[in-house]
Structure formats: C-alpha cells, structure tokens
Amino acid sequence: MELTTVNVKRLYLQVAEQLAAPIHSGELVKGDKLPSERELASQLSVSRPTIREAITTLEVMGMVEVRPGSGVYVKDSGTSLLKLPENVPGPFEILEARKTLEPEVAAFAANRISDEQLEKLRQLLRDFGVPDLGPGEIEQIDKSFHKLIAEATCNSALSGLVKWLWELRSKSKVSIKFYQRARDQGVRPAVEDHRAIIAALMARDENAARQAMREHLQRAIEDLTEMSLD
User: Fold this and answer.
1) Which element (helix H / strand E) includes 222?
2) Whole-model pTM?
3) Phi (first) and psi of residue 66, to 5 degrees
4) Residue 56 and residue 63: Cα distance in Å, rounded?
5) Angle CA 22–50–84, to nearest 5
6) 67 in a structural domain
7) Alpha carbon distance 23, 15 (integer Å)
8) What digits encode the pLDDT tens for the residues 127-157?
9) Would you state the torsion angle of the CA atoms of residues 219, 19, 79, 63, taken in this order, to the nearest 10 degrees?
10) Which segments of 74-184 does DSSP mark as H helices, in order?
11) Neighbouring-strand partners of residue 33
C-alpha cells in the first residue's frame, strides 16, 4: 500500500477559497460588496479573526478591495489562490501561538532575568515615548522588547521559538498586508501593558509576569479584531 503525505489546508485559506468561489463564477462582479465580517463569520461558523485573515488573503491576491469604514468590495476575479503559499500561518494564528507561549516565557524569565536586561527593557519602554516615531520604528521596539524577555530565560529553544514567531510576520504577504492596515489605522502596542510586564519582572514575580503578558497579548488580539474593515 502506497501512502502519500496528507496536506491539511489552513482554515483561513479554506474560507478564502469559499469567499473566492462566487467571484470566480461571476456571481459577484467588480464593485459588488461582500457581506459584513460578522455576517460571514456567522454564515461560515468561524471566528471573526479567521474571516479577517481570509479577506486579507483575497486582498493580497488582488481579488477584493478593503475600504475601511465602508466594507469589502470585489476588485478582480482573474487571480488564482494557488499562488498563495500554504505553509505560512496567518496573523491571528501567530498571535494565538504567542499568547500560548509568551506568558510562560515571561514567567520563566522572571526568575532568570539580569539587572542589565531589566535596564535594557526600561530603555525600550522609554523609546516608546520618543516623539514622532514612525509605525515601523515602534514595531521594531516592540519586537526587541519581546525577544529580550525570551533571551532572559537563558533557554535557546524558547528564545528561538519567540524569534521564529516574530520572523513569520515578515515572511507572509498576508501578515505584511494585515499589519500595514493596522499601522494605517493607528493600532499601536499598548505602552502601559509593557510597563506592567517590566514591573512584574523587576519584582521577580513569575505569576504576575505570566498574567501581564497574557493580558497584553489578549489586548493585541482584541484591538486587531476590532480594526475596521466594514
């Protein structure tokens, strides 16, 4: 008996294909408006983040145009979803992974972080307040903050996982487009959340560090979920 590898398609790509079908068939034509995000989530029995990833996928493929505050409109039906790489997680998949991993990383770091690393975190917090920072600069500070906490665990496996999850954002066209919209709409990392994480680490309180990181990443998921598409 010959066996072949089973290729399980990511949920947001399955949804993207379903949304693309009436566009490909001509049922929806250029200028037509798609149902709202909430309607689609209800009809397809998936979460709003999954719908958001699917819509962003269609946008990357040039099939739809997102007009914040107005909705999602058909732009073109001639692009194939086969061109989209299927081995890269979507932006909310990455955030869910981070929410699972990084609270425990922060708890681990609370017992190992050095005074020098704590000072570097405080400096990054001060950097958040520098006037006229561009969205890309803020994102780099945020990335450095989280990677430094992972490094403070003195565990190369944990540090490598956190680094990999951040790198995925720059390897996926869907994530790049997604975060570009977030920046355009003024979605920024919550500075107060970072301050709470540092306070917990300074107190060497692993439970507080775990909770502060979990709340921070949950807030990020909520803010990005509420970002305007309709």
Assistant:
1) helix 206-225
2) 0.82
3) -95, 125
4) 10
5) 65
6) yes
7) 13
8) 988 888 888 888 899 999 999 999 999 999 9
9) -60
10) 91-110, 115-128, 135-151, 156-171, 173-184
11) 73
